[in-house]
Amino acid sequence: MSGRQPWSILRQAELLDGLVGHCLMRGGAPADEALITISRAEASELQVLARLMWRMAPYEDEIRRLVAGA
After folding, report:
1. How many CA atoms lie within 13 A of 39 on its CB side?
2. 27 is a domain residue
3. Which of 12, 39, 65, 69 is the most buried (most CB within 10 A)?
4. What is the rounded distance in angstroms from the CA atom of residue 52 to the CA atom of residue 64?
5. pTM for this structure?
6. 18: closest CA among 53, 1, 43, 50?
7. Please, which pLDDT band fits residue 59 given cuts at 50, 70 and 90?
């Protein structure tokens, strides 16, 4: 990710929503189990997302306070 712009929260949500969509039944209920195939690009994006979340995790309380305005 060096030199690239950090992902927007919207892009992160779109990635996760797309993956979750592969794990739902036709009526929208979660499948008991799901085998999905993801592209190399999606796997790379998930790696980046995981790294971002690991870096943010120590600041979760502060982030929650900022978002909630408390």
Report:
1. 5
2. yes
3. 12
4. 16
5. 0.70
6. 43
7. very high
Cβ contacts of 44-48, under 8 Å, gap ≥ 24: 45/15, 46/15, 46/19, 48/1, 48/7
Q: Please tell me the total count of domains within the chain.
A: 1
Domain containing residue 59 = 9-68
Residue 3 is assigned to a structural domain of this protein: no
Amino acid at site 68:
A
For residue range 44-58, what is the model confidence (pLDDT) as tens digits?
Answer: 989 988 998 999 999
Query: Taking 70 as the threshold, does the pLDDT of residue 1 lie above it?
Result: no
Residue 17 lies in a domain: yes
Residue 32 lies in a domain: yes
